[in-house]
């Protein structure tokens, strides 16, 4: 981990720019400056030598005339005038034998210089060379002097200090390297500042956005601006975050759906076991109840029964009837049709259901109304099962109602058939809207409910691919049951 942390600065874009751009520029620039300086040094050195050469050639004519006239004073004045130029360290005139006849300057030539001068007189060529003069390194330029007949009669030597040439070259070198260092410093600042403006601040903002997302702010999105490359990265980051949100939402939905399906499968297994058990119990209870009801009817026909006995026998018959109703509910709950579905006129089926519960409504003073009928309301299914389910829905509403029950039949916007049953009773609490479809869960026990009616309704709805929704009636204020079925395709 420490190794990775140590390598992070080496991977920064700023350092990469310095190593891959500035450093190569510095190397090549230094090489260019050095090569340029070498060329300039040679050029300047030649120029400085050329100046001495021009001075020597300029002095040559007046010195030759003075030698022809044998006027040493004129020769001295000419040399003194040359010495006053400022760039000349010394000027010397030698005769044909190499003897010094005139001197201008601080350094005096010694015997070795005079021997060298005699040799150059014999050669008779202009030449320049570096040498030592009185212990000082100098550059000397020699010009032969000729007489009227063209014969060499002497030698003119003009001297310039080598240190002066070196000093001039050193000045040029220092200035060159200072200028190059200044250029590299300015270039480095431009690159670093440009990196900050063009890349650094946008990358920092992008990193801040990532840090916010990492800290838990999943709704944060990076700003898509700046250079095209950075904006592309920010846009890709936002798309990735959107995709992760969609994936998280889909996973959450799948988990909820899986839990719902697991609960539903468990309920189906329980219902299947309960159905098997209920079918067996109902079959076993049928015969004893028939015997009890028959014996009770025969006892009621006997003479001499007291009023109390008659009431007790009637109560026995009512309990037997209620038990038979429960058995019928159990048999219906355990029943599973295996026949093919057939067309069902839902309007006629609903009217038959309402006709069956109307006596109960009249006895309790409840208004039962049918609304929104449609002559073409046809579905595919099993008529007996649908009738029993609708009968349970309407009877459940009648038992809960205080004064009014409304049944609405029609189509929705998607072409499906919708049956709505509403009442003005107390309604179903939100926390009970799923549990009321569980077997034996009922809020109407005081009214003789078995707790299987709505369980049968949901079973029939699932058999027909329908859905059941429980809500609040806006018109009546009580409960609102909505069964939605697929219309039959002709």
From TrEMBL:
Recorded GO terms, molecular function? Answer: phosphorelay sensor kinase activity
The topology of this chain with respect to the membrane is:
Multi-pass membrane protein
Which spans are transmembrane here?
15-37, 177-198
SUPFAM superfamilies given for it? ATPase domain of HSP90 chaperone/DNA topoisomerase II/histidine kinase, Homodimeric domain of signal transducing histidine kinase, Sensory domain-like
Histidine kinase domain residues are 280-489
Question: Catalyzes what?
Answer: ATP + protein L-histidine = ADP + protein N-phospho-L-histidine
Signal peptide residue numbers: none
- Taxonomically, the superkingdom here is Bacteria
Sections of the chain in a coiled coil: 244-271
Task: Give every HAMP domain span.
Answer: 197-249
Primary residence:
membrane
> What keywords does the record list, in alphabetical order?
Cell membrane, Coiled coil, Kinase, Membrane, Phosphoprotein, Transferase, Transmembrane, Transmembrane helix, Two-component regulatory system
Q: What is its EC number?
A: 2.7.13.3
GO cellular component entries:
plasma membrane
Q: Where in the cell is it found?
A: Cell membrane
Protein's recorded name: histidine kinase
From which lineage does this chain's organism come?
Bacteria, Pseudomonadati, Pseudomonadota, Gammaproteobacteria, Chromatiales
